[in-house]
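Before relying on records like the one below, remember that each one covers exactly one chain. Contacts with other chains, cofactors or solvent are not represented anywhere in the record.
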Amino acid sequence: MLYKLPDGREIDLTRVKSVSSIRDSGLEVNSIEKSAMTFSIRLAGSETIEVKELYHYADWAEATLKIKRMRQDLLNKLKDVRGE
């Protein structure tokens, strides 16, 4: 089953091995005012996909909620595919 990430990338849920917790990666390398919150999706075959939400410090709470929802939606779809 294919799952479409908010940025348009598609992943095959049957290949997902694990989903990391969310972490705040701090300031982006190419930006002096944007930070990033990320989580990683590890797939079979040693491929890793990073999901990233950029935010300005004033929007930290909104970005946190958004990335939590993204991750939870992915986990819910994984449960459906695995029959849990």
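Helices lie at 60-82.
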